[in-house]
Amino acid sequence: MVRVTIGMLLMSMILVIAGCGGAPQAASDQAIAASARPEFVFKLGHLQGGEHPYQLGAEKFKQIVAEKSKGRIQIDIFPSSQLGNGRDQIEGLQLGTIQFHVGSVAPVANFAPKLNVLSLPYLFRDREQAIKALDGEIGQELSNDLLQKGIVNLAFWENGYRHLTNNVRPIKTAADAKGLKLRVQESPAYISFVHALGATPTPIPFGELYTAMEQKVVDGQENPLAQIATNKFQEVQKYLTLNAHTYDAAIFLMSKAALEQLPADLQQVVKEAAKEAGAYERQVSQESEEKFLQELKADGMTVEEHPDLDSFRKAVEPVYQEMQDSIGKDLIEKIRNTN
Length: 339
Fold this sequence. Notes:
Helix content is 51%, strand content 19%. The protein is built from 14 helices and 9 strands. The protein is globular.
């Protein structure tokens, strides 16, 4: 009986010693876990789906921020208009309910009117000129007004060239669009553009556009190939015209209040990550255009690949006359002269 008791005591002592040895390790594990918890959890919203370059760029941004901040910042991504339409999300930046938003420039121009210049049709000679202007002094000038609205433009990304689609007839010349009812963004430049074609502009939030076309509220719309393909517009639109009327710069925005709450080192992380992810997103956008075009053709869209672009350029001349007073003729010329 004594032997059993001694044996039990020895076993208890071993367990106690083992337990004591494990306690510091458990505490250490808890400390590591606690240190891995992010200090800042931010929301990033956009209007497009999971295959769109916006989403791929947002995922790249999230990855870079996590690595460079060593886990101190966590980015939660909300695609497909989960945080509201474009205006809702931009206002969310001002209120601090959303920390990041990437989207087309046009809705942002309602908060900083100079940005309307980027929505003018056939403004840039090519993509290279557009990127040079946006990444230089002109881009900075266009972004400055946003600071007064509580918003910071961290970088210009890309939404691609915008094209016309409709469900009524093929469009080869500008005159072929006459009489169509076309959805546009809530933007004076886009409204003026559709008027110049002799069509009827109808502002509709992007999240409601598919249903509006399905129910024939509008005959068509204009958007880059990525939007058309990833949102399955080919299911409710028959004709696509590759008229490339606008190089649609995307804009990657952050709440000014959210940026200022970060320490200096993390502010730098966010700024660098936005530009690095933006370069990646632009590359993805360019490389995916041919893929999306082939998908649209395979799904039965009739594609006009060689429209009469001169007829479109001539038709939209009144847009410049209408917009230049509010935008500034000098700014338009400055952009056009970028080399």
